[in-house]
């Protein structure tokens, strides 16, 4: 099995949902959304799952929805993206030593993947993590991403609790920094501010000095 399967249909609920959304929006991708960026990048951002009118429409993670606004602006600020905005999958934006993926590759109803779906998709993430260089850093956006990374690395959730800004030094795996997800809900309620998000990327930059 490869790290990404563009025609994966292993989750019946997600497959049925994507088929329905495709009928309503024939121009949307409505298939698994591939990771974006160099597989050998030193920074891997792990999100939750494609958004209905964002990645599920455009085919690029965090592109076309609110969550991507802060993410791409921050990646650009810290030298990980060639531009501050990601508009479409063919807008020419390039990630620099960075890759973006999701814990679940298909759009889930109500943005909530079920535990069985997170598990079914986890071997994709495990392969992506295994392919990273030794000194890589992962930023996990939210607890679902955090737990998916732990599962992919064979680690217990109870041993590595989620905490915004915490760096986890998992044995034999990339270092993982936790961040609250940059969702519209979290930014509008100020659970996650721009400053808090910048601090996470400052930590990532300290762990990954420019070559
Ligand atoms: N878009 C994504 O690709 N992932 C998220 O987690 C949110 C929006």
UniProtKB/TrEMBL annotation:
Record CDD domains: UDG-F5_TTUDGB_like
Keywords: 4Fe-4S, DNA damage, DNA repair, Hydrolase, Iron, Iron-sulfur, Metal-binding
InterPro entries tied to this protein: UDG_Type-4/5, UdgB-like, Uracil-DNA_glycosylase-like, Uracil-DNA_glycosylase-like_sf
Keyword DNA repair: yes
This protein's record includes keyword Nucleotide-binding: no
Family matches, as SMART domains: UDG, UreE_C
Pfam families: UDG
GO molecular function list: 4 iron, 4 sulfur cluster binding; DNA-deoxyinosine glycosylase activity; metal ion binding; uracil DNA N-glycosylase activity
GO BP field: base-excision repair
Annotated Uracil-DNA glycosylase-like domain residues: 34-201
UniProt family annotation: Belongs to the uracil-DNA glycosylase (UDG) superfamily. Type 5 (UDGb) family.
Protein name: Type-5 uracil-DNA glycosylase
Organism listed in the record: Sedimenticola thiotaurini
């Amino acid at each position: 099995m490869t790290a990404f399967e563009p025609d994966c249909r292993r989750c019946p609920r997600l497959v049925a949902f994507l088929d329905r959304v495709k009928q309503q929006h024939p121009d949307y991708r409505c298939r698994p959304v591939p990771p974006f960026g160099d597989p050998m990048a030193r920074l891997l951002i792990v999100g939750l799952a494609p958004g209905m009118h964002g990645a599920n429409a455009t085919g690029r993670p965090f592109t076309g929805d609110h969550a991507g606004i802060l993410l791409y602006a921050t990646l650009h600020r810290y030298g990980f993206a060639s531009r501050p905005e990601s508009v479409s999958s063919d807008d020419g934006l390039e990630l620099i030593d960075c890759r973006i993926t999701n814990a679940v590759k298909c759009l889930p109803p109500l943005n909530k993947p079920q535990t069985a779906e997170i598990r079914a998709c986890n071997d994709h993430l495990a392969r992506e993590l295994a392919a990273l260089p030794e000194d890589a850093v992962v930023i996990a956006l939210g607890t679902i991403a955090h737990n998916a990374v732990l599962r992919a690395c064979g680690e217990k959730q109870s041993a590595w609790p989620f905490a915004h800004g915490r760096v986890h030094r998992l044995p034999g795996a990339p270092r993982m920094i936790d961040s609250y997800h940059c969702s519209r809900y979290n930014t509008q309620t100020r659970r996650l501010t721009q400053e808090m998000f910048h601090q996470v990327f400052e930590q990532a930059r300290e762990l990954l000095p420019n070559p």
